[in-house]
Q: What sequence folds into this?
């Protein structure tokens, strides 16, 4: 038997040994589970859950199945992630611009915030907001009020809720605006106008138009509780604030690095054309920095989705819990 044949024989023997070991483990596992009346399958997803999910975006009660419970908690995870991404992105952009500004106070505040927040454990910040901030808010009858329609108290944040068809209406209007913007860029010669400048005003205008023309359900205090509107529970608020502020400092550093990666001659050329500092930043520098920024920013957004599992520590009903 030559060396090549011996090598194949040893590899075949190793494969057979691994397969035999895997068969023994699976047989042993099946026997032990059967002795305890347990099975490995997904049949439980169709069984009645029998528990409550206090915060949900769709219909739920204890009579629904475990599969629907996973769907409800998955929507909660995506909803919290979307709110955190918006908050972290806006705060990160603000901190980055403060750090790059020529104002020593703004730059020092941004630098201190970044160093303190990113060196504090994420779970500690979530628990801090939940216990030290939200649990000491006033009771229902002494709620903090804004514009007579938004109420903040120890039970959460009560905000006006749109009518049932408004969500679909806003979604359709937003999609229509995106299509119109794409047509304008191609047919009307707007290729030279940065999408970063044109698209947000169109989307904001569509959302404002939908909000102004829709019927809103305003929360009001009736007896010992608020009726109408939508309640944002303190668990969601603590999760959004904790993860949002924590992630914003990392996003701020990513944005700052991307802006500094653009040659300073670009900003000088923009100012030589008569653009102000703000115009040169938002019309010239930031659009070019997006190419550098998108990969690390995507990683931060993925980290946000994974970090929502920390909501289990404060009883926010997401997928892990």
A:
């Amino acid at each position: 038997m030559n060396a090549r044949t011996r090598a194949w024989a040893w590899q075949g023997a190793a494969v057979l040994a691994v397969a035999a070991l895997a068969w023994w483990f699976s047989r042993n596992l099946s026997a032990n589970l059967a002795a305890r009346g347990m099975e490995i399958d997904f049949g439980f997803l169709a069984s009645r859950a029998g528990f409550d999910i206090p915060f949900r975006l769709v219909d739920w009660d204890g009579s629904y199945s475990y599969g629907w419970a996973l769907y409800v908690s998955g929507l909660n995870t995506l909803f919290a992630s979307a709110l955190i991404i918006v908050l972290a992105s806006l705060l990160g952009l603000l901190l980055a611009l403060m750090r790059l500004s020529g104002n020593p106070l703004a730059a020092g505040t941004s630098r201190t915030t970044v160093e303190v927040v990113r060196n504090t454990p994420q779970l500690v910040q979530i628990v801090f907001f939940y216990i030290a901030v939200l649990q000491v808010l006033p009771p229902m009858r002494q709620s903090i009020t804004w514009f007579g329609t938004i109420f903040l108290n120890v039970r959460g944040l009560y905000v006006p809720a749109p009518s049932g068809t408004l969500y679909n209406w806003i979604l359709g209007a937003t999609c229509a605006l995106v299509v119109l913007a794409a047509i304008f860029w191609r047919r009307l010669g707007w290729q030279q106008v940065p999408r970063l400048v044109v698209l947000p005003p169109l989307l904001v205008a569509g959302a404002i138009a939908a909000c102004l023309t829709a019927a809103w359900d305003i929360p009001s205090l009736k007896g010992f509780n608020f009726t109408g509107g939508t309640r944002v529970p303190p668990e969601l608020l603590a999760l959004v604030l904790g993860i949002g502020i924590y992630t914003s400092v990392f996003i701020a550093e990513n944005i700052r690095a991307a802006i500094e990666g653009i040659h300073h001659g670009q900003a000088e050329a923009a100012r030589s054309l008569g653009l102000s500092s703000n115009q040169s930043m938002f019309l010239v520098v930031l659009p070019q920095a997006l190419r550098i920024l998108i990969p690390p920013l995507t990683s931060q957004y993925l980290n946000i989705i994974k970090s929502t599992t920390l909501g289990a520590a404060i009883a926010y009903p997401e997928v892990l819990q």
The first helix runs from residue 3 to 35. The beta strands are 144-146, 150-153, 156-159, 161-162, 216-217, 220-222, 225-227, 230-232. The two ends are 59 Å apart (CA to CA). The longest strand covers residues 150-153.
